[in-house]
Design a protein that fits this description.
Length: about 260
Amino acid sequence: MKIVKLICAVFCLHLLGSHLSAQVSGIKPIILTVSDRMTSNIIFPTDILSADRGSQDILVQKASGAENILQVKAASKSFETSNISVVTKGAHFYSFIVSYQVLPAQLNILIKDNAESEAVRLSDFPVPQDFSLTSKPFLNKSKSSLNCRLTLKSIYIHNGVLLFGLQINNTSLLDYPIEAIHLFIRDKQRAKRKAQQSVDLENVFSTLCPIVKGKQKIDVVVGVRSFTIPKNKQLMIELQEKNGGRNIYLPVKSKTVLKARPY
């Protein structure tokens, strides 16, 4: 009788073990290389709730003002391979294997989850999930430099933020790595013996990607706090190429900004 009970217990444990093992699935980690000289950026589709590093040799922080960008950097020139675990809104979990490399293979990583927005979401600026401006263009202001063209397609206003729908068209075979899109207000004309004055406008929203491939065009949205332009000044939209000379300066008149439509 004891032998029968023992056999039944072993059989039940076997069934329970099989059931538990069937519910366990592995999460494949993402390979990430970081440097002590450069900052790597990981853009998640939803806001970051927590980020845990496996080693103090890895520095992690959320980008200032942004809720879905994690900045990662090496604290020293070399360290043993470690990991980072990230939890984001919507109960999403991400795992990264992190190792050191002087020149990381990829500095900016965009993680797409289903069809969610790629936009950088700011904690004080809620953005609709279907956010798109260049699909409804009503402007056509452009400037070019060495086979790369920057075009202003639209301006909308949403929650006190002016949103500029832009298109970058790279007609060359060379990739165009983007450093930044910079908006500022400056004098229309510089007076003799006088430096040209300019006021920077801080980006509070951006869907900027890190690179425009050769023979490719992309749509970009950049948002800044609502503003107006004095008569003797104008808005400048500057597209900066990383480690390159194809910077583009697109002037925008005050009357063009006043054409902004509600989103």
